Amino acid sequence: MIRVGTCSWADESFSKAWYPKGVKSGERLGFYADRFDVVEANSTFYRLPDEELVARWARLLPDGFVMHVKAFGLMTRHPVRLEALPEDLHGEVEADERGRVDRPSREVRGEVFRRFLAALEPLREAGKLGGILMQFPPYVVPKPRSYEYLEWAREQLDGHEMLVEFRHKAWFEEPAEPLAFLEEHDMTYVTVDAPPDVIPLVVARTSGTAYVRFHGRNRATWFKRTGSTAERFDYLYSPTQLEEWAGTLRELDRDAQVVYAMFNNNGRSGAGEVPDDLSGGLAEVAQAPTNAAMLKALL
Q1: Which of 90, 133, 150, 160 has its CA 20 to 30 A from that of 38?
Q2: Reduced to 3 states, what is the DSSP secondary structure of residue 251?
Q3: 3-state secondary structure of 134
C-alpha cells in the first residue's frame, strides 16, 4: 500500500494556485480529501492543537483517510514563542529577551506532550490519526543526550506511532547506529529528499511504515529564514525524478505494511514540466499537490 499526499492542505500556494475559485477555506480539507487519502497537519508545529478544530477535521475526513500530525515545536526541542503556550504554563517557564521559551523543564515538556495528545483524541477515536511527526532541528546531532531524549519522547508518545525526522547530516554519514536505535525503540524513520549535500539521501525503514518526505532540492533557498516555506522549499520535481522515486517506493512496498510519500515542496512554479491535465493551462502551479498527483499517476 503506497499512499501519496502533501505536508499541508492550507498552505498559501494551495489557495492561490491549486484550489479552484469559489472553494471556501472551510471547504478545502474536504476538497483535498476527494483527491488524496493522506495529509500532514503542520499548523500544530506552531501552536498546540485545539480539540474542537481536531474534531471538525475528524468529521470532515472520510473513512480510511489518514492524518499525520506534526509535533508542537517544544516537543522537538525547538524554541517557541511564549504566547504559543497555554497561559497557565507561562509561570512555569522562562522566556528569553526575544520572548521565546527554549529550555523548559521536563515536567513542562511532559505536560505539553499530554495536552497535545489529548487534543488529538477525536482523530484517534475516529480511526483517522496516523503518526506524530517529530521533526528535530539541525542542532540536534547524534550524541548520548539526543538518544536519551528520543527514548524519553517515545515514552511520552506511548501508544502512538512516532515518526522521526533528522535534519543534521551527521545522522546520515554513519546511519547504521541511529537506524538500529530507531528500530530497537519502535520508532519510524523518516527518509528525507532534500539537497543531497545538506541532507544525504538514506532510504531506509525501521518499522512496518516506510515514510518519505519530499522537501525539494533547492539548495539556494534551503538556508533562508524568511518564514515562508514557499521560498525555502521552492522546487518542482521533474517527471524523471518522480519516475525514479516511483521505483524506489515500489521497492519499499515489498516488505512494508504501508508506504507514505509526502510532499513538502510548498511553493508555486511555472507549469512547464507539468502534464496539461494537471496544470489546467495555468501559468503557475502549486508544487506539492501537483507533484503528489504526478507521482500517484505513476504508481
Answers
A1: 150
A2: helix
A3: strand
CB 255 within 8 A of CB 205: yes
Residue with grid cell 482523530, as numbered in its chain: 123
Secondary structure element (H or E) that encloses residue 261, with its range? strand 258-263
| Nine cell digits for residue 274 | 507539468
User: For the chain, first and last CA: distance in Å?
Assistant: 10
> In this structure, are residues 217 and 197 in contact, taking their beta carbons and an 8 Å threshold?
no
Please classify residue 225 by burial: count the beta carbons closer than 10 Å to its beta carbon, then call 0-12 exposed, 13-18 middle and 19+ buried: exposed
Domains in the chain: boundaries: 2-298
- The partner residues of 213 in beta bridges, in order of sequence, read 192, 262
**Contact of 284 with 270, CB cutoff 8 Å:** yes
Task: State the fold for domain 2-298.
Answer: TIM Barrel (3.20.20)
Which tens digits make up the pLDDT trace of 110-165? 999 999 999 999 999 999 999 999 999 999 999 999 999 999 999 999 999 999 99
pTM of the entire predicted model: 0.94
